Amino acid sequence: MNTPTPLTNAPRAVLADDERLMREQLRARLAEVWPALQIVGEARNGLEAVQLVDEHRPEIVFLDIRMPGLTGVEAARQITQLPPREGAGDEGDDELLPEIVFITAYDQYAVEAFEQGVADYVLKPAERERLQVTVQRIQQRLAARNAPAGTVEAPPGPNMQQLLHQLSARLNPGGTPNYLQWIQATVGQAIQMIPVDEVLFFISDEKYTRVQTAQVEALIRKPIKELVDEVDPRVFWQIHRSTLVNVKAISGVTRDFRGRQIVSVKGHGEKLEVSRSYTGLFKGM
């Protein structure tokens, strides 16, 4: 695992590919089309990629889709659920996720999925012209991050979890998603079985996740980072590091005095904050 020393005040990236020559080729092409980009780490597999991202918190991650240990898709899933940095304080929960770029050799079905705009892709071998397009898109996204809330429209699209589920299904065509149907939760002193389709939203703290329906508030020990993989991403959108909301339960989205998006829930007084990484879910708000 190679971890060069980063320069300051420059966008940073981690490269992950199990083929050394592919990493070298991509690094060389990136140096041509984006000289300011600092490669702060290179990983040989998905597990190393997650570790490097957790250590460096770069703005961009390049992930080969097919790697040993953890695939690029599995690594991306873990990266999007990394906890806030130590000492980040209250603002840590709104820490932006890195821009993810998948590296793929020939998977046309995967390339079609990327056209949704949630993540970008680079085809092997990395051609200068196509890489330039990817770089321009990332630069636009990074510029939007630094703008005051509400002044620049976030890139539209379904949330990253939808893309990751879709890619997983296409990479493993024999597997059928088996989403949670029931939640076994503590309500008072009793254990209750709650149908997942009745849940309005899930909100986690350090130890518990609150399960909210129209009639019941319950607690479970399963964290959001696990629930994200177990519920249908077409129904439950992650809008914050600690929050999943049932799309059918959303009555509207407004902005508060800070310019942050706030989700209103049908039949419930709770207001759910949308963190900056997920504002593209509600295009035009």
The count of domains is 2
**Major sheet attributes:** 5 strands, parallel
In the CATH hierarchy, what is the superfamily of the largest domain? Response regulator
Shape: globular
By helix and strand content, what is the structural category?
alpha/beta
The level-1 CATH class of the largest domain? Alpha Beta
Order of helices and strands: EHEHEHEHEHHEEEEEHEEEEE
Number of helices: 7
What would you say the CATH architecture of the largest domain is?
A: 3-Layer(aba) Sandwich
Strand content: 25-35%
Rg, rounded, reads 19 Å
- CATH fold call of the largest domain: Rossmann fold
Which regions have little confidence, pLDDT < 50, spanning 5+ residues? 3-8, 151-158
Oligomer: single chain
Spatial gap, N to C terminus: 42 Å
Number of strands: 15
What does the average pLDDT come to?
82
Spatial strand sequence of the major β-sheet: 2-1-3-4-5
